Amino acid sequence: MDLSFLTGSGFDTATPGLVTLLVLTGLAAGFIDAVVGGGGLLQLPVTLMIPGLTPVQALATNKMGSVFGTATSAVTFARRIPPDPRTVLPMALTAFVAAGAGAAVAALLPAGVFKPIIVVALVAVLAFTVAKPAMGRVTELRHTGARHYALAVLLAAVIGFYDGVMGPGTGSFLIIGLVSLLGYSFLEASGKAKIANFATNLGALVVFGAHGSILWGLGLVLGLSNMAGGYVGARTAVARGNSFVRVVFFVVVSVLILKLGWDVLTGR
């Protein structure tokens, strides 16, 4: 079966087996992203398996799939846990701009520059969360007024830029920032993180699209599977509550530490 329309001219034909793997990975990534973020840890390596793709093309196409998934999970969360627009809208706008800036320099800065820093940050995040078992069980905002909104925008700017440059764990970083800095519960933080994460994906996608790096057919396949996974993941998170989100958060962050730590040790 000729599936070359998914990757376009100039690339080897995508096999049915590989496309099936991409669909299953997109479903799993969409589910994980909807709950705590980190789906790119699964999706990006599989996208890189497509013959002939450059890392930038794989990252760009991965973003297209993630846009569909985060949009679906953001809407699903918002319908059940309405977010405060005074917090999420400035965050989303800032994240959009910052992610676009990050994507613009993605081809200039190798991921190896960031990975050791990210591993240290993830270990600190995991240790901090374990040390404070009551953190994130209920929403107890630590700041009010201008300080609250300023911290939300700063968080969106930093994580948005990181998502444009590299990406894995963006949703997890957003959640832990909203929980630890602002005082949201894990469930509320996850819902707000989806809106900001959608904006980061969209901002990066606009830049990648302008550069012609997106494989649209492949991105659509990933997008549709991400939508399905994101819908199921968001509904599951809302139904299961904070304890479920917290457990999945621990698992995803631990896997991120192992994966990125291995990359640092092996020089990948």
UniProtKB/TrEMBL annotation:
GO cellular-component term (any): plasma membrane
InterPro entries linked: TM_pro_TauE-like, TSUP
Membrane topology: Multi-pass membrane protein
Localisation per UniProt entry: Cell membrane
Record flagged with keyword Transmembrane: yes
Pfam families in the record: TauE (PF01925)
Residue intervals passing through the bilayer: 20-42, 88-111, 117-134, 146-162, 199-224, 244-262
UniProt-recorded name of the protein: Probable membrane transporter protein
Species: Kocuria varians
Taxonomic lineage: Bacteria, Bacillati, Actinomycetota, Actinomycetes, Micrococcales
